[in-house]
UniProtKB/TrEMBL annotation:
PANTHER family: BLL6575 PROTEIN. It comes from the Bacteria. This is Putative stress-induced transcription regulator. Coiled coil: none annotated. SUPFAM superfamilies: Jann2411-like (SSF160904). Pfam families: ABATE, zf-CGNR. Residues 130-172 form the Zinc finger CGNR domain. InterPro entries: ABATE, ABATE_dom_sf, Znf_CGNR.
């Protein structure tokens, strides 16, 4: 099981604040993340729990971005205590046997366990510097740096292109015209 792929759940939650406005948005977020309710109703408690989790995850990414390593790790550890892992072997949808991190508890708890365990695995396997916030002003969306040379600085190709074009234009304005 590649727990680091679960870290994408943290990024999805951070980058989807508009989906935490109502129960329909949370339902679509959970479905996109593979935590479909399957006959269970998403509750206001789930909505509030995911809002709280989002704020904690943002604080982790900000601490990592600012080089506050101990703060970021303390926050991850606090979330690991709050959302203990309950692994379970599962076989569904024609897939071979595989691990799921939890099947019990609230839907928000299931999401939290995956996101937090994913971040913990990514940080311990690859380092805290793999968590980032987009450097394209004013974006600040979260990303995971999975590049081989730890060079990612933007959340998307769109932001990278926009930042590069802005830097190019700024350089062009500073170059004196020959003549």
């Amino acid at each position: 099981m590649d727990l680091t792929s679960y870290a994408a759940l943290a990024v999805l939650l951070i980058n989807s604040p508009e989906r935490l406005n109502d129960l329909a948005g949370v339902t679509s977020l959970l479905a996109e993340a593979g935590h479909e309710p399957h006959g269970r109703k998403v509750t206001r408690t789930d909505l509030e729990a995911l809002r709280d989790l989002r704020e904690e995850l943002i604080a982790i990414f900000e601490a990592a971005e600012e080089g506050r390593e101990h703060d970021a790790i303390d926050r991850v550890n606090s979330l690991l205590i709050l959302h203990p892992v309950h692994p379970q072997i599962s076989g569904h949808d024609g897939q071979p046997w595989h691990l799921h991190l939890t099947e019990g508890g609230r839907l928000a708890d299931q999401y939290a366990v995956g996101a937090v365990m994913g971040l913990a695995a990514l940080v311990t396997d690859f380092g805290l510097d793999r968590l980032g916030l987009c450097q394209a002003a004013p974006c600040r969306r979260a990303y995971l740096d999975t590049s081989s040379n730890r060079s990612r600085r933007y959340c998307s190709e769109r932001c990278a292109s926009r930042a590069n074009v802005a830097a190019y234009r700024a350089r062009k304005r500073k170059v004196p015209v020959a003549g």
